[in-house]
Amino acid sequence: MPLVRYRKVVILGYRSVGKTSLAHQFVKGEFLEGYDPTVENTYSKIVTLGKDEFHLHLVDTAGQDEYSILPYSFIIGVHGYVLVYSVTSLHSFQVIESLYQKLHEGHGKTRLPVVLVGNKADLSPDRELGYLVIPFYVPNLLLERYRKLKGRN
Ligand SMILES: Nc1nc2c(ncn2[C@@H]2O[C@H](COP(=O)(O)OP(=O)(O)OP(=O)(O)O)[C@@H](O)[C@H]2O)c(=O)[nH]1
Ligand SMILES: [Mg+2]
């Protein structure tokens, strides 16, 4: 019998970038047209990878901005994060930087699995973020993090 493992994943990002739509699509397989701002919601799904079964607990959060304080429940016992921005909003991408730093402050030296999602790619004419931004930007974020860690040792 396969071993069932529990994983808690938190979805973070600015308001209206599509966090709920992504969670809903992943768990229920359908797209939500309307916009209803989230307070906080959790989804459960059994995910099978090869012979392993994972009980996924997906936390869909209220949109954050650069001033948001992340509660302990978004740090303690969390196995990974989905950071979502919209390609139509440069500001939503800038919020990711501040969220990423807060997560690292919260987790210290612990390895931090993070997936970065640029959503609303179908609204290409409204793009505020070009395709080349991410390959340049993400390595810089990681380098900055590495330098901080080195400085602390
Ligand atoms: N065109 C397009 N619209 C999207 C996409 N994803 C989400 N939307 C729409 O964007 C709006 C906001 O989506 P939500 O999923 O509610 O956004 P959210 O990040 O959960 O918002 P908050 O809960 O307020 O933080 C809704 O009207 C969605 O239908 C996408 O990939 N493309
Ligand atoms: Mg939402």
From TrEMBL:
GO molecular function annotations of the record: GTP binding; GTPase activity
PROSITE patterns (alphabetical): RAB (PS51419), RAS (PS51421)
Keywords: GTP-binding, Nucleotide-binding
GO biological process: signal transduction
InterPro entries cross-referenced by the UniProt entry: P-loop_NTPase (IPR027417), Small_GTP-bd (IPR005225), Small_GTPase (IPR001806), Small_GTPase_Ras-type (IPR020849)
Pfam families in alphabetical order: Ras
Locations listed in the record: Endomembrane system
A GO cellular component annotation in the UniProt record: membrane
Principal location class: membrane
SUPFAM superfamilies: P-loop containing nucleoside triphosphate hydrolases
Name of the protein in its database record: RHEB like 1
Gene name as annotated: RHEBL1
